[in-house]
Amino acid sequence: MSENKNKLTTSWGAPVGDNQNSMTAGSSGPTLIQDFALLDKLAHFDRERVPERVVHAKGTGAHGYFEVTHDLSQYTKADFLSQIGKRTSVFTRFSTVAGELGSADTVRDPRGFAVKFYTNEGNYDLVGNNTPVFFIRDAIKFPDFIHTQKRDPRTHLKNPTAVWDFWSLSPESLHQVTILASDRGIPATLRHMHGYGSHTFRWVNAEGKSVWVKYHWRTDQGIKNLDVDLAEKLAGENPDYHTQDLFNAIENGDYPSWTLYVQIMPLEDAKAYRFNPFDVTKVISQKDYPLIEVGRMVLNKNPENYFAEVEQAAFSPATLVPGIDVSPDKMLQGRLFSYADTQRHRIGPNYQTLPINRPLSGVNNYYRDGNMRFDGNGGRSVYYEPNSFGGPAESSENKQAEFEVNGMAANVPYDDDDFYTQAGDLYRLMNEDERTRLVRNLVNWMKPVEVEEIKERQIRHFYRADPEYGKRVAEGLGLPVPNNIL
């Protein structure tokens, strides 16, 4: 056995030089596909659960439509957004993140909010959550983060010590942790919560000009959250409460709807903005970049078969259409690979041919064979490209728009390491009752942690966000505020 038994390695035994930062072109990215440690880690993680989803296993969904209400063609050439009144069929899936397929709906957890648009130019997936930020900002940390949310390999129980150990060693999580422990951590129903694209994306117009964009789904039903005691009671009495509520509402003709807004940022603004707009642990202030209405989504039809439509529905942020591109967001860059890869493992390499995933606009390519290929497999048509027989060919006008990258290729973090300002701002926006519930939820969550050092380390993060925040959590845990705050 090697003497370097404490060195982290890849699956083939090579030592890993940096397990906190993926290799990017400069500190702002994008992520480089040559980062073999990242790809190996994500590819293995994608295959850790058979057959349910590794994350977002418990979910429900519905069919509906999206209708454009405002003309934003000056910003994007995406066909489904091209004119006021245009309707596009959608399928939307809501989910919890950490729990298994049979887990309770009313737990404290982010909710997945994934929308598949069946556009005239192919499918477009907008895959986000019900929170505007996330726990981490680099995809290389995602498998480790999700491991802390799953069951301990020895006890097969949830492990709060692992959860808080990871968060306390990953201060970028503080903003999301504050949201999750607040009233918004348990929505009353799936109909009464907002949704977000979370990441920064890029829109490109017909002239090839680009802007950065953030997506916001605003519930037309209003925000409602569950009291923690009622949520716990429902988890025992009706673990499918959210699933049932959505199904019954649609079945009774009470169709839920959301209005889609975007924030638009000129490309050049990203370089000078006070927060890195590609860091998914941060929000872009709506005072600086106000919400602009795009359209409205209505869910008006329940699935006929849960497995065929909800369980086999496959989403990926890499499922894009002309006029919508990605940003150098490091978490997004990892998701571009990981989401589609895990679907290939979970439901097969031909998952896009399943009815729920198949684009209404049709598919023309040279993909062939693979398990569960149940269509005509391309028939006798030409099966390679380029060819001399009139097969489908590339359309240069649909290439991704160019953008500038610079810097040395290296495993480096974002330049910005301010993990506390926005979390502190959020705390100070809360009224006294909201703060009291936030602190109570955090204290009850942290009490089972077995290592005092972990609690103290996390209290330092709360304190740096806002001294009152840290002091109140410390008092609730019966601990002194650590002396070495800074």
UniProtKB/TrEMBL annotation:
Its cofactor is heme. The keyword Transcription regulation does not apply. It comes from Sporolactobacillus laevolacticus DSM 442. This is Catalase. Keywords: Heme, Hydrogen peroxide, Iron, Metal-binding, Oxidoreductase, Peroxidase. Residues 7-27 have a biased composition (Polar residues). Residues 1-27 are annotated as: Disordered. Belongs to the catalase family. InterPro entries: Catalase, Catalase_3, Catalase_AS, Catalase_clade1/3, Catalase_core, Catalase_haem_BS, Catalase_immune_responsive, Catalase_sf. It catalyses: 2 H2O2 = O2 + 2 H2O.
